[in-house]
Amino acid sequence: MGVAPIKMPQLGESVTEGTVDKWLKREGDYVKRDEPLVEVVTDKVNAEIPSPFEGKLLRITVGEGATVAIGTEIAQMEVEGMTAEPPAVPNAAPSSEPSGPIAAGATPTATQRSRFSPAVRRLAEEHGIDPSQISGSGEGARVTRDDVLAFLEARDAAAVAPAPAAGDSTPPAAAATAADGAREELVKLSVMRRSIAEHMTRSLATSPHAWTMQEVDVTELVRYREAEKEGFRRRHGVPLTYLPFVIQVLCDVLREFPYLNSSWTADGILLKKYVNLGVAVAIPDGLIVPVIKDADRLGFTDLILMVNDLANRARSKQLKPEEVQGGTFTLNNTGATGSVASQPIINQPQAAILTTESILKRPVVVGDGIAVRHVMNMCLSFDHRIVDGMMSGQFLGSIRKRLEAWSAAGIRI
Question: Which DSSP category does 405 fall into?
Fold first, then answer.
């Protein structure tokens, strides 16, 4: 028997931390290999992590709600056939770091700075604070991202709190509660909501966003779907939605406009010669973007089955870490909520994101007359460092022309 460490896995590109949301097993439980062990949340995914080993869960070293760096040990498992390793002894050797808290206002040394993860340092720099002033709740008093957010929340609350009037002996906390009463409610942020907020803020700070929109007449596409949807469900067991039609056209057009399928780097613009398409999926606590790898190589039916499978597993927290990594472009069907126009935020480090809006009947000029047609808006946000207005317009225009001229003959079965 030996002791194997369970570590925080990599759950997406540029992700440096993960938060333990819920342990699915308890200390002492016997766990089979690939059996769900722990739920982990990042700004990329909310997923059940399978056990990499089979054995007894000896010790949980990172509790629920704690945020730790990728690769940090979060548990220990007793595994048959492994070489036994002596358990780590905390503080066995003298530390060069100060054991007590650093005085407020003191400048952290290089050694002290190394205690903070890149995400913590970045968040602290964005708000102009010194992370060494914050009491850490992580392992070994390590400062986590949640600690920084809690510090900012407390600081902001103190800044706006009114001074008590002379002779008023009501404690500030009690006064706030009384003032709120039943007319206001503070909803605590979930781990996923905090992660999404940080990712969206970072995206806007990273890329100069620009936005454009075009209308698409999808009448012929609507007619085809209406005629085929029941038969398709009987044959394949899944619904025939509009999304795979758009995906197939989008993949073809991305090959024509490689700068829309690229990333900005310090050395230049990195063009991707493949299409790994992220498709946004709404879940109760936020949004997850599973990735269809090599979407441009899939047939129409395979696309439908893949989209349906990824969406179902995203909602049930069954996605694997690699299924939310490597995206080159993102598509979001905001029309499912009734939206007719939106301005999406780019999913870093991609160059653009496209939304498809609600399909509505509208009066449209056809020749010298007016006809009722099915019309859909497409909205594109793009990184203006990479893409200019002309290219973005040509890109959307090419998608529009293909969708308007769509016929069943163009389907790759």
Answer: T
Residue 167 makes CB contacts below 8 A (sequence gap 6+) with none
93-109 pLDDT per residue, tens: 333 333 333 333 344 44
pLDDT on residue 128: 73
Nearest alpha carbon to residue 67 among 256, 195, 236, 232: 195
CA distance 277 to 260: 12
The answer to whether 247 touches 234, Cβ cutoff 8 Å, is no
Q: Are 395 and 385 in contact (CB under 8 A)?
A: no
Q: Which pLDDT belongs to residue 102?
A: 36
Q: Which CATH superfamily is domain 108-155 in?
A: E3-binding domain (4.10.320.10)
Asked whether the domain spanning 209-410 has the same topology as the one spanning 2-79, the reply is no
- Structure confidence at residue 162 as a pLDDT band (50, 70, 90): low
Question: Which alpha helices (H) appear in 55-140, and where do they start and end?
Answer: 110-113, 118-126
CA–CA distance, 398 with 251 (Å, rounded to integer): 11
Angle in degrees, 0-180, between the axes of helices 300-315 and 219-236, rounded to the nearest 10: 70
Query: Which class is domain 2-79?
Result: mainly beta
Pick the CATH number of 209-410 from 3.30.1310.10, 3.20.20.140, 3.90.1720.10, 3.30.559.10: 3.30.559.10
Q: Is 374 a catalytic residue?
A: no
DSSP 167-233: T----HHHHHHHHHTTT----PPPHHHHHHHHHHHHHHHHS-EEEEEEEEE-HHHHHHHHHHHHHHH
Q: How many CB atoms lie within 10 A of CB 37?
A: 23
Structure tokens at 360: 């509505």
Closest CA to 66 of 114, 153, 136, 155: 136
209 catalytic? Reply is: no
